[in-house]
Design brief:
The radius of gyration is 21 Å and the shape is globular. The chain has 406 residues and is an alpha/beta fold. It has helices at 10-16, 49-52, 61-71, 84-96, 108-127, 146-151, 155-158, 176-182, 206-218, 240-244, 270-273, 289-302, 305-328, 354-363, 386-405; strands at residues 28-32, 35-38, 43-46, 101-105, 133-137, 168-171, 187-192, 195-196, 202-203, 222-226, 250-253, 264-268, 332-338, 341-346, 366-367, 369-370, 375-378. It has two domains: 10-59 and 305-405, Aspartate Aminotransferase, domain 1; 74-302, 3-Layer(aba) Sandwich (Aspartate Aminotransferase, domain 2), CATH 3.40.640.10. The strands form four sheets. The chain has a seven-stranded mixed beta sheet, sandwiched between helices. A four-stranded mixed beta sheet has the order 1-2-3-15. A four-stranded antiparallel beta sheet has the order 13-14-17-16. It is 40% helix and 18% strand. Helix 3 packs antiparallel against helix 12 (289-302) and helix 4 (84-96) runs parallel beside helix 12. It holds the Pfam family Aminotran_3. N(2)-acetyl-L-ornithine binds at residues 144, 283. It is found in: Cytoplasm. Keywords: Amino-acid biosynthesis, Aminotransferase, Arginine biosynthesis, Cytoplasm, Pyridoxal phosphate, Transferase. Belongs to the class-III pyridoxal-phosphate-dependent aminotransferase family. ArgD subfamily.
Length: 406
């Protein structure tokens, strides 16, 4: 029996929600594949993917089926007990990656929190409390908890919340010499996003990641890859480290892992995992049966040659057309990224105006993203249909024409 719901509109946000977001003027209410409909019934094409989350688009039958089946069985038992979906998911991730152990949580921030705590605990146990320093990169993003926001290299997110966690330094991204100068025997971990996401979709150089791996080995430090945005097929490999051929000690995953259902994972080796002994770390909801059932279904679909090869093919389709549009309208200097994480760098004339592009696209029935004020970001479903790509990019071109002629 359905209960009549009170009507709500965008204005309600400003009355009842904490004002830490500035959501768009429309409210999406339904999605199917790469199409979304708002309250008025208007249809939009989704190239935002819930910020690289909706890896299989909206209402994918495999995910709906997995969630529905599990919802009728078991939702939550806590970590006093284990559960079948969590064990199946851990097996899948271990079988498919460098990892031998998995820890499940609810978000990318929690996955990184676990990774950073593990790194410090390993160093503490093996070398003593002096070895606790973490090196991250300028403009990195690792989450919104106090620890992860301190590790993230964007002061605008960490300033104004009291004393920061100490023992954290930041070096320029893709600058091996800077890392070499900063790392020491007090360093417990180096944290890198294989592609910097929030700061503008900036891919790492292969030599940079290889060099970071060598420096970590030399100084007995752990290499952590934050793959929250790059993981689970986004680059055309299951995880971006595979694309680069550089293996981390610890990897964090979230976003795409649940295809829209909240879940995070920290992956690592058996030798490191044993330092998180019983009671050292935990989470109430982490590894719950609902999230793990959905994530199992995500991996079953994504980790196939067809889907991963499709991501690489779709990248070329997006890139060619976006470069063409960028050139024609004087909008972009560069289209960069790997797989279906693509950043279009705005020209000097449009610097700082990514929000204007976002708004113009929305008026044409297209959802895109920003990555900072100077980059327009695309992170669509990995199985977005070619017809939707064509139609979406037609809409984007109309937006570009409207914007540049205004």
């Amino acid at each position: 029996m359905s209960v009549e719901q009170a009507p709500v509109q965008r204005a309600d946000f400003d009355q009842v929600m904490v004002p830490n977001y500035a959501p768009a003027a429309f409210i999406p209410v339904r999605g199917a594949g790469s199409r979304v409909w708002d309250q008025s019934g208007r249809e939009l094409i989704d190239f935002a993917g819930g910020i690289a989350v909706n890896v299989l688009g909206h209402a994918h039958p495999a995910l709906v089926g997995a969630l529905t089946e599990q919802a009728n069985k078991l939702w939550h038992v806590s970590n006093v007990f284990t559960n079948e979906p969590a064990l199946r998911l851990a097996h899948k991730l271990v079988d498919a990656t460098f990892a031998e152990r998995a820890f499940f949580c609810n978000s990318g921030a929690e996955a990184n929190e676990a990774a950073f705590k593990l790194a410090r605990r390993v160093a503490h146990d093996r070398f003593g409390p002096e070895k606790h320093e973490i090196i991250a990169t300028v403009n990195s993003f690792h989450g919104r908890t106090l620890f992860t926001v301190s590790v993230g290299g964007q002061p605008k997110y960490s300033d104004g919340f009291g004393p920061k966690i100490t023992g954290i330094s930041h070096v320029p991204y893709n600058d091996l010499e800077a890392l070499k100068a900063q790392i020491s025997d007090k360093t417990c971990a180096v944290v890198i996003e294989p592609i910097q996401g929030e700061s503008g979709v900036v891919p790492a150089d292969v030599a940079y990641l290889q060099g970071a791996r060598e420096l970590c080995d030399k100084h007995n430090a752990l290499l952590i890859f934050d793959e929250v945005q790059t993981g689970v097929g986004r680059t055309g490999e299951l995880f971006a480290y595979m694309h680069y051929g550089v293996t981390p000690d610890i990897l964090s995953s979230a976003k795409s892992l649940g295809g829209g259902f909240p879940i995070g994972a920290m992956l690592t080796t058996e030798a490191l995992a044993k330092h998180l002994a019983v009671g050292t770390h935990g989470t109430t909801y982490g590894g719950n049966p609902l999230a793990c059932a959905v994530a199992n279904a995500v991996l079953d679909v994504v980790n196939t040659p067809e889907v991963l090869a499709g991501v690489k093919a779709k990248h070329q389709k997006f890139k060619a057309r976006l470069e063409q549009i960028g050139e024609k309208y004087g909008l972009f200097t560069q289209v960069r990224g790997i797989g279906l994480l693509i950043g279009c760098v705005l020209t000097d004339a449009w610097k700082g105006k990514a929000k204007d592009v976002f708004n113009a696209a929305e008026k044409e029935g297209l959802m895109v993203l920003q990555a900072g004020p100077d980059v327009v970001r695309f992170a669509p479903s990995l199985v977005v249909e070619d017809a939707d790509i064509d139609e979406g990019l037609d809409r984007f071109e109309r937006a570009a024409a409207e914007l540049t002629q205004a």
